[in-house]
Amino acid sequence: MSTLEIRDLQVSVKLPEGELKPILHGVDLTVRSGETHAIMGPNGSGKSTLAYSVAGHPKYEITGGSVTLDGADVLEMSVDERARAGLFLAMQYPVEVPGVSVANFLRTAKTAIDGTAPKLRTWAGELRGSMERLQMDPAFAQRNVNEGFSGGEKKRHEIVQLELLKPKVAILDETDSGLDVDALRVVSQGVNRVRESGDTGLLLITHYTRILRYIKPDHVHVFVAGRIVEEGGPELADKLEDEGYERYVAGAGSAR
Ligand code: ADP
Ligand code: MG
Ligand code: MG
């Protein structure tokens, strides 16, 4: 069992002029392997900032609080060390990796995380199986990472990584954005397979409630203006679908 623990996390974005703009104002969140959490909030509330901060993106400065994975200080780790420690961060805008095929990228990542290269035959079978389940053309494995990927291909590639790398905790930022209904269903089924393995803790970050029709979170956290303002079970997502964020946004405004 693994635990990602975020305590009183305060983060500022570094502006080009060198100024700091505070975005996260004390976030507390605990995600254990086998649990599925959803963070839901309006655009601009700081959801991606939370994901990037845990990922170690240099644009964000941690000004307070802590992030630990099984007690180890994540904020002290390099980006590579975070991945080797078992954190998986699928970014909202994944970067291109020039000249590296999907197959090589995945095998290199797996080798880095496990410390040894996976056996070629088993590995090839696993990759093929995962791609089949996500209804991907086998030729996709030979394409360069993220080069000209459609929105749906990027998300499917994320889920293949999840299935093969078997992280302890995965943060998926806006996995539902840019997907048509069929792709959303296939991608959600992939997330549910990872979830049912019970080995991975999932943190789904989303603006919309639609992905939560396919993936039922154990815990829902409403995120507004850089903090969690309400927590509950899956019924909270249904309430948000009906009522939107207005109520919370008004509350956050008057509290400033
Ligand atoms: P979300 O993912 O919830 O839509 P973000 O984390 O992307 O929110 O952004 C949170 C806030 O931080 C927004 O108000 C956004 O304008 C601000 N922000 C993020 N990056 C920058 C930047 N480089 N310069 C100025 N403001 C930024
Ligand atoms: Mg909590
Ligand atoms: Mg975002």
UniProtKB/TrEMBL annotation:
Gene3D superfamilies registered for this protein in UniProt: P-loop containing nucleotide triphosphate hydrolases
InterPro entries membership: AAA+_ATPase, ABC_transporter-like_ATP-bd, FeS-cluster_ATPase_SufC, P-loop_NTPase
Superkingdom of origin: Bacteria
The keyword Nucleotide-binding is assigned to this record: yes
GO molecular function terms noted in the UniProt entry: ATP binding; ATP hydrolysis activity
NCBIfam families (alphabetical): sufC (TIGR01978)
Family of the protein in this entry: Belongs to the ABC transporter superfamily. Ycf16 family.
Protein name in UniProt: FeS assembly ATPase SufC
